């Protein structure tokens, strides 16, 4: 997935949760990405974020700490 | 095996609870009040002779054959129109009645051809039966008087004679055999609700007429077959019966088209289907059908079917036919090689929503247990995945809440983003019947669909919103309900989380969500929206039915949540007549989702991260399951382009045609090293495949489909698979080739495994389905008979959850380059990618995809009716012919996606639902301009498809040198 598309889709999730009650926002984004993104997508998200979070919505940036960072195991399978 | 004979009670059942006792021919009978004497007699096993009565339509009392004598009453009343009363004493056979009936039959037969031996209805003709029943031996009037039978009379043309109308591809209308019982006319009105037929003329001049004395094909007839089924003679007759003859046995099975899941009797002669007849005991369809299920099954024997497995090294090579064993060994070797080379997660599979529950279960099992990853997905990704997500969040379960019978108790229907008269025709007929009986309708749709105004049906409100503004409109409805105090507070306090409700109510009450504020960008007049909100909240039982116009948006999941909010806030959930009802697209899309086809969850909607759930399957399957979610279809294609995903097994789905942004799908497929397509035909995806495994049709296998009302229906094999193996056997043997120790000898064993592992299916077995006909899940210890209506005493998740639904405009916007919005959908006669229906005579109704455009937009562009036009978006461009119509609003254009020549998905974009990646098919900014031929893309596509479909002749298998 192109970095633009990935950023766009992650921001879409952040946009939804940003409209939810405050205590659910960050948790909501992280939980959603953990539940529905396969490890290689999360790895790529971190690859991008580690370089720069420019263009990431604030809720997404805050959620990064709670998103499971794929380890060696299962990065591709 | 024998032909299933359904009892025709003559008149519909009464729903009264009070019963009445009467005596018929010396037998005491107890029946519900309001039952006709005819039906009561039938209950007692006494067949009163009849012609114009049949239990699918109301009594009419015209044939005068069903007369009876009732003690204490004068004359000979018609038993069909006479209701029973307490203590009534009825005689159905007396000397007087015998004389009258014989006299009536004499008149009928004096104007009827006597070609019984060569008549197509021979053996299945009620007129013939009645002549026998009344003992007709002679016709005193002779046959030479005025008649409708003979083309020439006394050497001159007979002006009353009308030749056969053979215009409909599936049935004929022979006026010479018509007895004007008007059953067809009433079936068209009462059962189908189209009102295409009438009786023209009076007295001896009366005859059945489609429209204004038109041919069937030129009339409003939708070819549902209700009239053919109702006809007691050969006047309306299936062409297949004319060609083949009467069937000798029949088997009850389930239609393989849309998510209504109609039950049919497959009427057979040997292994040849003679006709498909809707089954009256089918709980989804109650004896009705549409043109697809009733008639469009000819694809099963179409010459295009591929019957031998095929393999090729490169997609530019021609196909080479191989044995099944070679094919399985090749796939197993390739998949293992790819995993060795690129990692365990480099392969995956797609389950088919057209295949059975058992087959989808096996495919996901193959992926999870055999491939060792969770890269499995299904076509629900591109249709109802937001339903699964949204309803799961709100209610705790990912399915519609009602059965179809529920509509009979509904007072107000909201229909959002669905066009049931085309997409779910049999449900539409049931809905129209209820609307004619007084229920109110609110349509929320950018197009003026047929239900907005059609014969004897008119929506109270049509909210013609701009595509993409669903959330704003639904939140505005909630705003009105909350701010005008129309909520059902008692329901919410008892059944939902009160603090979440308060949070939500405060959110929607914000004036920014008022209809007056949103009108500017939704295009929905505020007063109309307020009226709709009041009607739904206070009009009695309110039910919401919705389709892909809800889900296929970047805010699809949010819209589903908004729907759930409305139902909960108004207390419209948890009893018959209300609820939230997604109209499912494909026959088994509900089942495919139930069976764990999504990459993040195991069967029964249980997330893969749950160790306890995994444990159930790990113990049974003897493998360790991966706890991480796998790739969804769009993610697989992205990963393929990235090079981390190289092999796929696709059962019964044509992603190249059905998925959005065709160019991207093509790029993904081209990047893979082993694409295995398992299908009936060389579909569009197969152009990019390395292995083709021939599939079997629903007529060739046993299994179950689960329809939109969670109803598990049996699919029964009526002929041997032409390709040699049922689809479940193909997956089974593929798994075995990959080294898995699988042993199933019948799909019932697969269902037993599903029941053993999935709590909502715990009590489901083939034996239970045999006993009950069908059952709706959950079906377990607590609900051994299944669950027609869900959330009766409380929500599955406990308390119903209200969720804020903030409107976020899609980034797909019209602008100077692409000033129009394209939305896509289906048409009645075609189904999905058309692989099946395009290979039937249904093409007579829809031979190509057309672009619907408003006269204003057409005129601005110099486009006339039927012109070839170019349709372009930022993704691509195609050409098709225009249809100028006011069904679409100015600024909106519409097309279908049934034909690969059009490739409507070249136009659609890669935008998708934020939660599920369900594509945004329903909104694409486009430009339309006159054109003089196919686009470069279409020409290249055609050339590639032709090249890719070459099959080496068998004698060319030996190398030339």
Please estimate the helix content of chain B.
25-40%
> What does the average pLDDT of chain A come to?
90
Structural class of chain B: alpha/beta
Largest Cβ-defined interface = A-B, 23 and 39 residues
Q: Which geometry of chain A do the CA atoms define?
A: globular
Radius of gyration of chain B: 29 Å
What CATH architecture of the domain at 313-384 and 588-762 in chain B would you give?
Answer: 3-Layer(aba) Sandwich
Structural class by SSE content of chain A = mainly alpha
Overall mean pLDDT score of chain B?
95
Distance from N terminus to C terminus of chain B (CA atoms, Å) equals 56 Å
The beta-strand count of chain A equals 0
CATH fold-level assignment of the domain at 313-384 and 588-762 in chain B: Rossmann fold
Total helical segments of chain A: 4
- Parts with pLDDT < 50 across at least 5 consecutive residues of chain B: none
Protein name (chain A): Formate dehydrogenase delta subunit
InterPro entries (chain A): Formate_DH_dsu
Organism (chain A): Hoeflea halophila
Pfam families (chain A): FdsD (PF11390)
Question: Could you explain how this protein is built, in words?
Answer:
- The complex is a heterodimer of chains A (about 80) and B (about 950).
- Helix content of chain A is about 65%, strand content about 0%.
- Chain A is mostly helical.
- Chain A has one domain (about 5-65).
- Residues about 70-75 of chain A have low confidence and may be disordered.
- Chain B is an alpha/beta fold.
- Among the domains of chain B are: about 20-135, Ubiquitin-like (UB roll), CATH 3.10.20; about 315-385 and about 590-760, 3-Layer(aba) Sandwich (Rossmann fold); about 385-580, Dimethylsulfoxide Reductase, domain 2 (3-Layer(aba) Sandwich), CATH 3.40.228; about 820-910 and about 930-950, Barwin-like endoglucanases, CATH 2.40.40.20.
- Helices cover about 30% and strands about 15% of the residues of chain B.
- Chain B has 29 helices and 38 strands.
- In chain B, the strands form eleven sheets. A seven-stranded mixed beta sheet of chain B has the order 15-14-29-28-27-16-17. Chain B has a six-stranded mixed β-barrel with strand order 33-37-34-36-35-38. In chain B, strands 22-19-18-23-24 form a five-stranded parallel beta sheet.
- In chain B, helix 8 (about 325-340) packs across helix 25 (about 725-735) and helix 13 (about 470-485) packs across helix 17.
- The longest helix of chain B has 19 residues, at about 325-340.
- The interface between A and B is medium-sized, with 23 and 39 residues.
- Chain A: This is Formate dehydrogenase delta subunit.
- Chain B: It comes from Hoeflea halophila.
- Chain B: This is Formate dehydrogenase alpha subunit.
